[in-house]
Queue: 2 jobs
Job 1
Amino acid sequence: MTSNKKLSAGDDIDARCLKCKDVTNHTIVAMVEERVVKVQCNVCRALHNFRPVQVEKKATVRRSAERSGQAGRTGGSSRESKAESRFRELLGGRDPLAAVRYAMTRSFQTDDLVNHPDFGIGLVTRSIPPNKIEVVFKEGAKVLICAPRVKK
Ligand SMILES: [Zn+2]
């Protein structure tokens, strides 16, 4: 049986959860076209990128075909590094233009998209009370200072 069932956000899917260190049931949070990019673990409620339960061998074949055949599918970035493609996956097709400009005086929360003058676009993956956030940028994760969360 191949799983050609069409998935959509809100559906349940099995995925590997790093927190549970196991394959658990997840709810799809974000999709790009027909690809699941973000899921939430139904066991520990952690939000993370979708990690398939098993790696298909087909993927390797498809990738080499893509390289020789139709380069530039996403605008010529066929030579992006592993870190970059992981980063892109993390963003899950979110609009970089929606990023909030980073400033120490601002407060951020997990899953916020920030635009840092030096590091570029990043995603807040963790907030570290009282006044720090961990942000994953293209070049890796950084801990930044931010204003303490203000309760409105
Ligand atoms: Zn989990």
Job 2
Amino acid sequence: MDAHVIAVINQKGGAGKTTLAMNLAAGLARRGKTVVVDLDPQGSSRHWARMGKEPFPVQVEPLTGDWDREILCVRHPLCRHLVLDCPPSLENPASLQALRVCDVALIPVLPSPVDLWASLKLPQEIEEARKVNPDIKAYLVLNQMEPNSALSAAMQEAVMEFGVPVLNANMRRRAAYRGAALEGTSVYQMGGHGAPAVEELEAIITEVIGL
Ligand SMILES: Nc1ncnc2c1ncn2[C@@H]1O[C@H](COP(=O)(O)OP(=O)(O)O)[C@@H](O)[C@H]1O
Ligand SMILES: [Mg+2]
């Protein structure tokens, strides 16, 4: 059976793509074999996986050259979930290819309209990709949320204009996310310190794929 493919994409650097991709993959790996495909030429998810004292719970593999969904699935047989960590650019053909092959596109974004405006080309590219991949489900994932802070009116307006639904589940700004990156691990491996972040990721997984 084909893997379920989740692309984590945003042309803006620092939005939280790699943070979401790595921690999401760690959560998905508890449900079935999962691989992170590192499409960023900077190799940040591969670097992340090599940093830890313990092996990272998910294999992280680069993918270069020409590829399509079939090649992706043949390379990763028996894989239930593939998480694509995309480069911070839509000029990079790998980003557009990720949209053409994915089941779900998750777009992490900081909760500021300025950050969302920086990604305004993305909805167009999703529409373009739908010509060949009509069933893409795309969602914004708010990242680095502050506790108890409602979205500003300007942000709500920017989200409406963006035209991609926002997940109810989101990620707060947490030391655990930063720590997981620094220590080459995931919040799932961090015990009590990681628990609130794990809850957020579990909510994202439930909302996106219902598992
Ligand atoms: N929810 C969060 N809480 C705290 N730090 C975060 C959070 N999300 C991302 N970061 C930090 O922000 C920086 C950029 O995140 P990263 O995932 O590398 O973004 P991208 O892959 O989109 O460039 C990293 O230092 C990361 O540790
Ligand atoms: Mg990244």
